[in-house]
Design goal:
Number of domains of chain A: 1
Oligomer: heterodimer
CATH class of the largest domain in chain B: Alpha Beta
Distance between the termini of chain A: 24 Å
Order of helices and strands of chain A: HHHHHHHHHHHH
Largest sheet of chain B: 6 strands, mixed
Number of domains of chain B: 2
Structural class of chain A: mainly alpha
Number of strands of chain B: 13
Shape of chain B: elongated
CATH architecture of the largest domain in chain B: 3-Layer(aba) Sandwich
Structural class of chain B: alpha/beta
Helix content of chain A: over 70%
Number of helices of chain A: 12
Radius of gyration of chain A: 19 Å
Strand content of chain A: under 5%
CATH topology of the largest domain in chain B: Rossmann fold
Shape of chain A: elongated
Strand content of chain B: 15-25%
Number of helices of chain B: 11
Chain lengths: 256, 327
């Protein structure tokens, strides 16, 4: 275990000594919260124009998380860069010469990055919720309402898992451009499009982001997903575990 | 002590390293020589367990690299100069390496001082010149005070002062009883630093010998003769049982001959000589002859214009031929 402690310490030094960490995590927080505030304010002013059915299914908590769709992209960039920076700079050979045990290296790096992401994601989620609710006025939800606290914590967990998933994919693909070129369009466009088209919805609802998003919703009247909030979250966890197993196997077998 | 046993690396159907077996001893600088693409870097990556051997093994002081608990304390390596994150300061680059191997923080400042980078320790390595990057890489190699040091082409990109510094550093490290293994494609560079030589070509071991033996065996010495009466001189020489060959520029070359004897011979026959000079083929030439058949990327120069060059001196291979055309 002594080795693992050393490597965790080393990875912490690595992560805090590059500027991209502050930039990407800061951007994720600002974008998510700011867009959440904006969309919450717009929702309040447009509330009167909503149909009765829309008013019934209006989810103030989920509305304040509206910025996460964009904010998660900055998180994905963080997750990808944490790993692929090692490859694009050639640092990986220095790193693996210092820590030849591939598993210790990979999981120390991912543990540190995950803990940092979790802290930032939780702050982001709670900030987005409280500031968003402040905008919603009389339509707001309270943190004590049923399911709301779970949704807000879930929001933080969702962003964390998207980031960890990105780290796993980036480990397998190595190239930052390739990883971002696959992950960004997938989570920003493809998944949402496939999830909106009835024909592909049945498949798309098992995608990591679609399943994981369930835990952030409080009101789910108009929904036919075959899983609940934590069920959806568990599906997302399975995706993440699969990405990490893949990352470990690839790193162990591949020449650096 | 580094032991390679049947080390082999295959990429697809191409053998990059082919059954390499040799031992690198402590206390001296061992040069690892080969033309570009000979498999030097692949071999060094396998020593650090970065690349997996297709067959064979590497042992460092009796252990496999992946078994080392804090490898930087056993083996220090400089692979490529810029194997570091450019956005990280020199200090933090070394600090994260030190922490991963349980090396005290104070050691970071020490090695920065050794390589002369203290003044730029807080600067991001992105702005470093190749030479500074090389020095930072060397600082990383020295960090754990290891007994085994591997340097892959360490003088690349260094200015003369830097080259001088690294030669002395390697000699000092060896004199402290450490194993110093340094690769190069420049024989002239190795001649100045290495006491022992391991030469490879196309992944195969071509020579494993001391530098002194290599020089003795491979440097061809001959006498160059120039005379306005070349044909007569040739007759006189062959009459005395001496084989001379005509070089490209019209001079005669006599292998392994005694200059004094040739001069007396010419005087006896009253042949005017314009030049009589003992010559020593350079080590670079010897190295190129050794590796001639195994050079992977031949530079095919266009046929030289004008009359065809005269007969080649004996023993001239691809290397000398190339030198003439190139010059």
């Amino acid at each position: 275990m002594a080795v693992a402690t050393q490597v965790l310490q080393s990875e912490w030094t690595k992560i805090k000594s590059v500027r991209s960490t502050v930039w990407t995590l800061g951007l994720a927080l600002v974008v998510t919260v700011a867009l959440g505030i904006l969309i919450s304010a717009l929702s309040k002013s447009n509330f009167d124009k909503l149909s009765p059915k829309e008013r019934l299914t209006f989810d103030p908590t989920f509305t304040s998380f509206a910025g996460m769709g964009l904010g998660q992209l900055a998180m994905i960039v963080f997750g990808v860069l944490v790993v692929s920076n090692e490859y694009s700079t050639g640092m990986i050979r220095t790193s693996l010469a210092a820590v030849p045990q591939r598993g210790t290296f990979l999981f120390s790096k991912i543990t540190i990055a995950t803990l940092l992401t979790l802290a930032v994601s939780m702050v982001t989620s709670f900030l987005a919720f409280f500031l968003g609710q402040a905008m919603l006025g009389e339509h707001k939800a309270s943190i004590g309402d049923p399911g709301v606290l779970r949704a807000v914590i879930g929001g933080g967990l969702y962003m964390t898992l998207i980031t960890v998933f990105s780290m796993g994919i980036a480990t397998m693909l190595r190239s930052p451009m390739l990883s971002l070129g696959i992950l960004m369009p997938f989570f920003f466009l493809i998944s949402n499009i496939l999830g909106a088209v009835p024909a592909t919805k049945k498949v798309a609802q098992y995608f990591p982001d679609q399943a994981g998003r369930k835990v952030m919703q409080v009101i789910t009247l108009d929904d036919d997903a075959p899983y609940g909030p934590w069920g959806g979250f568990a599906i997302m966890v399975l995706w993440v575990v699969a990405a990490l197993v893949g990352a470990y196997v690839v790193l162990r077998e591949r020449d650096a | 002590m580094i032991e390679l046993q049947g080390l082999t690396k295959r990429y697809g159907d191409k053998l990059a390293v082919d059954g390499l077996t040799c031992t690198v001893r402590p206390g001296i600088v061992t040069g690892f020589l080969g033309p570009n693409g000979a498999g030097k870097s692949t071999t060094m990556r396998m020593m650090l367990d970065l690349d997996r051997p297709t067959a064979g093994s590497v042992h460092l002081d009796g252990k496999h690299y992946r078994q080392l608990r804090d490898p930087l304390k056993v083996v220090g390596a400089l692979l490529d100069a810029k194997a570091m994150h450019g956005g990280r300061s020199a200090y933090n680059h070394l600090l994260c390496l030190a922490q991963s191997n349980g090396i005290p923080r104070a050691r970071v400042a020490e090695v920065l001082d050794t390589v002369g980078l203290t003044s730029v320790a807080k600067k991001r390595s992105k702005g470093f010149s190749l030479g500074m990057g090389q020095r930072l890489g060397i600082a990383g190699a020295l960090l754990g005070d290891p007994q085994v040091l591997l340097f892959d082409e360490p003088v690349n990109g260094l200015d003369p002062e830097g080259i001088h510094w690294i030669r002395n550093l390697m000699k000092n490290l060896a004199s402290q009883g450490r194993t110093v293994f340094v690769s190069s494609h420049l024989m002239s560079e190795m001649a100045l630093t290495a006491e022992h030589l391991i030469v490879i070509g196309q992944g195969r071991l071509l020579a494993d010998t001391s530098m002194a033996d290599f020089i003795a065996q491979n440097s061809r010495s001959y006498v160059r003769l120039r005379s306005p009466e070349r044909e007569r001189l040739l007759d006189v020489l062959s009459g005395s049982g001496i084989t001379a060959v005509t070089a490209g520029d019209g001079s005669l070359e006599v292998d392994g001959a005694d200059g004094a004897r040739l001069g007396e011979l010419a005087a006896r026959h009253q042949i005017v000589l314009h030049e009589l000079s003992p010559q020593q083929a350079s080590l670079e030439e010897a190295f190129m002859q050794l590796t001639a058949e195994s050079v992977e990327y031949h530079a095919h120069s266009a046929p030289a214009p004008g009359p065809a060059p005269g007969p080649q001196p004996p023993g001239s291979g691809w290397g000398t031929d190339w030198q003439k055309k190139g010059s």
